[in-house]
From TrEMBL:
GO terms for biological process: Gram-negative-bacterium-type cell outer membrane assembly; protein insertion into membrane. It comes from the Bacteria. GO terms for cellular component: cell outer membrane. It is found in: Cell outer membrane; Membrane. HAMAP family: OM_assembly_BamA. InterPro entries: Bac_surfAg_D15, BamA/TamA_POTRA, D15-like, OM_assembly_BamA, POTRA. Belongs to the BamA family. Its main location: membrane. This is Outer membrane protein assembly factor BamA. It holds the Pfam family Omp85. Part of the Bam complex. Residues 31-98, 99-176, 353-426 form the POTRA domain. Residues 1-28 form the signal peptide.
Amino acid sequence: MPSGKAILKMTAVAGIAALTVQPLPSLAQNFAFNSVSIEGNARIEDETILSYLGVAQGEAVTAAQLNDAGQRIRATGLFENVEIIPQGSQLVIRVTEFPTVFRINFEGNSRLKDDDLFATIRSTERRIYSPTDVEQDVADITAAYAASGRINAVVTPRIIRLPDNRVNLVFEISENGVTEIERIGFAGNRTFSDRRLRNVLTTKQAGALRTFIGRDTYSPERLEFDKQVLTDFYQSRGFPDFIVQDVAVQLTSERDAFVVTYNVEEGQRYSIGGVSVTSELNDVVDLAAFNDVIRTRNGDTYSPVSIENDISRLEDLATRLGMQFVQVEPRIVRNEANQTLDLTFALVRGERIFVERIDIEGNNTTLDRVVRQQFRVVEGDPFNPRAIRQAAERIRSLGFFANAAVNTRQGSAPDQVVVDVDVVEAPTGSLSFGANYNTDDGFGLLASFRQSNFLGRGQSLNLSFSTAESNKYFQLSFAEPYLLGRNLRFGLDTNYVITNNEGADYDTETFTFKPSLGFAVSERGNLQTYVQTRYSDITNAVNGEVAPETFADSEEDGRWTQSVGYTYSFDSRRDGLDEETGYKLRFGQEFGFGDTQFVKTTASAGATTSVLNDALTLTATVEGGYLHYNKGDSSIVDRFFLRGSQMRGFSLYGMGPRYYDDSGATTVNDSLGGNAYAVARLEAEFPLGLPEEYGISGGAFVDYGSLWDPGFDCSGANYYYCDFTPRTIAGVSIFWDTPIGPLRFNFTEALDVQEFDETKGFDVTISTSF
């Protein structure tokens, strides 16, 4: 009987072995074998091969059954070649085993490191070579490059034969260039422009200048996230029916960029009509008390976040009143005619389910208690799905984890629930060296170390120093957000600052030590209390070159002051949403005691709103401060000076009370600072019509304010502007979002200034690290 020969074929790309089985004379012929001879196997036992053969000794089999037996042996993936050869009463099985992978190497890769690629592939050193695994490895490596924006990457596997049936496996990689997103467009949007919606997305387009300006790469996961971001944006602005129908992603004809189009359906815009609370409980309920905690009002723009916050307030009140297992269901009735939504919060009885335990996994560094602190429930408490969802959001917002999944499952009994928290930790520390520049302090080198999850305890530690020309400093800050397991933030701040004032003929040296405690006093309000010890000294002052009061202060030894104080802050935007309107308030007082007794009061209020469908952003800010001494007098290091961020168009020492004397050999022009200041700022930011990939927008502003009262009698001939003397500055701004950070260029024009003021028509702020 003539015998055939199987031929092994491995392609360079797929590396897939092909099998041919010995041709048999006739499919109708039957065979029976008294013995089986196996040849070529070294690692695989005879018994293993026979088990796959499936033919018993002496059993009559057809040629087709022998072919099937050969295919079963091949399907194990253990052999490059399999031959089934009938020789009379003996069946010969000749096999060639796949080699062992000795080494795996990657060549041509630079964007993705070897460690990242090893984590991607299935093939393993010291294991049997598998063409199927190699084929999948090629697909996985290609997908990894596509996720990093290099969809044209080419991966070619090669094998290098070695003695003793071993091979080296080499993946040759041609990375090619990054495929940017050339354009992001929208279809179906009527209320908001494409430009405004692009500002909402985390994905950014590179535009026609993608060769020179890199913005973002294509990521399917990021597009999915952006769909939710768009939905949140529209719904928070009164569009409850908004949906993203689909996202079309196309390659350009050159295959070097993507075009992304979001097809959306906005729906109608709704506002809130009537708001009420009803109860479906058997208990007697004081509905007036529940109505009092609702913040949503008739006429408000519909926002699911506002409704969710009201539900939390209502359920918290029910818990405080001892009403267990009460849940709040929002019920909405549409009024299509006037496009309003009537909102009813229904108090209903929830299931009697308890939290059995909270299991946390994946936190190799972060302590369990850091995660547990984000839950408002503990083991044994009634189970509330909304409270669990809110805890999940708090865990994600910590910034400690690359991923955090919070799920529930049934516990040991039907009325018990186990909460599973699975986290993937992310880097939380950074060490940076860099440079900064601003027109107040000049150029300086800086270094900083930041750790937001110090020793896995959820604590923050920041250490930084700067060598700016006019302001050298060392700062150390530490914060524990949950002191003694309570919602108390403990902070410790210390800094040492040496100034080399180019705008004043003296230098200063200060040291501050400030422990503090902060806590929430309302949903969006916080109170910080602190104790402060401060040392200050005036140095290098020359008589006749500074004001007499400044020189007299410099002749005294450095001053130590002790004080206590508080700061209250309120931020309507603490939900983190890109809201149309928001405002911030801040009020603080510091009380000095000991040798110097004073009260230092500061306050600020700001509001921002977007108009013309968010195309124009308007901001208004007022701030002020007053320093009053009951014992002792203020020194120049204690008084207020207005920086460029507070009153644009002036140097750091360019406005306020001043001592000016040109009668001597040297002209003295000394800024005295003030015990009081007040500033109002109005600003508008708007697009300039430039391509968005530039990241450039424009602004216009008007600043009005004054700095006055140096704290001593300055009615003499050489003293100026000691009383309230307002100044007015107008200007335009250029905002530029660059890869090194946001830059702002201010061009100012003095509308109302005084003779000895020091103004500047241009300033820029830049900050970068490398």
